[in-house]
Recover the amino acids of this structure.
């Protein structure tokens, strides 16, 4: 079958990537969507079971830190665009093991940039979309919002590695003329998120009546966005964003951790038919995360005014949908926490 357009999505078996791949495969039957993923602990093909046989979808298991493999891939496949999400994504892991973040987030990104630069030399209509985080801007005080002009001030190994990759993507645009766009998004939540991040971890712990470890005083603030809203924003920016530009993505949806945790506890009490207040009793204040950023909040005005994107879901509704999804998908949760999916899919895709 002939397709009009071929997009390489990296990290498509992960949390955000899987929602994006599903959206692209279903919305653009005339596009070929190639998902490149190494299937680390955070990625598994179960997230894409419903579309794995779609005629416009291909999965390739591979590591973006492998420069030879990436170059070969770009010379064999004629990609029109790249949407780059593959990354090490968890701040706590970046504190215990920074090197894997340097390798995947920085070296892996440069491998993709080099391959795209070579493959696209003298060709028009290409686009390298780098998906990044608001954490590159550092931390806010009680007031103010991150805009696209906010100076970078990354403070964790994770955000420093993402900031580095953002700078490199822009450098390839300015130095070599590579057509790029960058987005910086706030905290995502929803189905398929690995249960090490705050909300899925706490849902898992509440279900199993285990303690809920709240870092520090719990008054840290995050700006939460429903994961499908991130996917629709990426779709809009990929198709309509201005070459070389950056777009902030956020839900105007700020919550102090302790407030969102209280809300989650109450939702879970209802869903599990437990006495009101029983999940809140699991809250345990623990030692703070080193270098913990106090507050993130995004100004997404540019994306709204220039490209017409707005988020679709409010947190109360999104939280309920998220909690229900994890309770209804116990097998998914058990398999990712035990490593069963990783073992199964790694074996299945051992010879790429
Ligand atoms: P995730 O950890 O759930 O998924 C990452 C995916 O990348 C996994 O499928 C993993 O297997 C794959 N991967 C990791 N290393 C790889 C490698 N070397 N080669 C190929 N594939 C590899 O992450 P996520 O939360 O879906 O985040 C996706 C992207 O969005 C990241 O770049 C992240 O920085 C960014 N982002 C995330 C959030 C958030 O709240 N989760 C917010 C803003 C931006
Ligand atoms: P997290 O989901 O790790 O995302 P990020 O650090 O990228 O914002 O954490 C969200 C917030 O929740 C952050 O302020 C740290 C806090 N947190 C806890 O209090 N306890 C936990 O067990 C985790 C994982 C996070």
């Amino acid at each position: 079958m002939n397709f009009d357009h071929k997009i390489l999505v990296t990290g498509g078996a992960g949390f955000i990537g899987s929602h994006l791949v599903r959206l692209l495969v279903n919305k653009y039957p005339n596009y070929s969507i190639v998902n490149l993923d190494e299937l680390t602990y955070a990625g598994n093909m179960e997230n894409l079971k419903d579309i794995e046989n779609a005629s416009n979808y291909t999965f390739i298991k591979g590591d973006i830190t492998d420069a030879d493999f990436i170059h070969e891939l770009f010379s064999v496949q004629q990609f029109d665009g790249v949407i780059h999400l593959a990354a090490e994504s968890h701040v706590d892991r970046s504190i215990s093991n920074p090197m894997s973040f340097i390798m995947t987030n920085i070296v892996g990104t440069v491998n993709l940039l080099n391959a795209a630069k070579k493959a696209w030399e003298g060709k028009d209509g290409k686009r390298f979309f780098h998906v990044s985080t608001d954490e590159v801007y550092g931390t806010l005080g009680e007031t103010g919002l991150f805009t696209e002009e906010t100076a970078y001030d990354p403070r964790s190994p994770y955000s420093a590695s993402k900031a580095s990759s953002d700078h490199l993507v822009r450098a390839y645009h300015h130095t070599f003329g590579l057509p790029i766009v960058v987005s910086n998004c706030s905290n995502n939540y929803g189905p398929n998120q690995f249960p090490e991040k705050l909300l899925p971890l706490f849902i898992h712990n509440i279900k199993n009546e285990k303690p809920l470890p709240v870092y520090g005083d719990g008054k840290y603030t995050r700006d939460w966005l429903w994961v499908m809203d991130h996917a629709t924003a990426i779709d809009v920016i990929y198709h309509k964003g201005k070459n070389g530009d950056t777009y902030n993505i956020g839900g105007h949806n700020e919550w102090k951790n302790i407030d969102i945790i209280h809300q989650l506890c109450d939702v879970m009490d209802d869903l599990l038919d437990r006495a009101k207040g029983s999940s809140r009793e699991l809250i345990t204040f623990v030692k703070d995360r080193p270098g913990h950023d106090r507050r993130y909040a995004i100004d997404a005005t540019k994306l709204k005014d220039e490209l017409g994107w707005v988020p679709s879901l409010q947190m109360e509704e999104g939280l309920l949908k998220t909690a229900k999804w994890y309770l209804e998908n116990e097998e998914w949760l058990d398999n990712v926490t035990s490593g069963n999916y990783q073992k199964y899919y790694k074996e299945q895709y051992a010879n790429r």
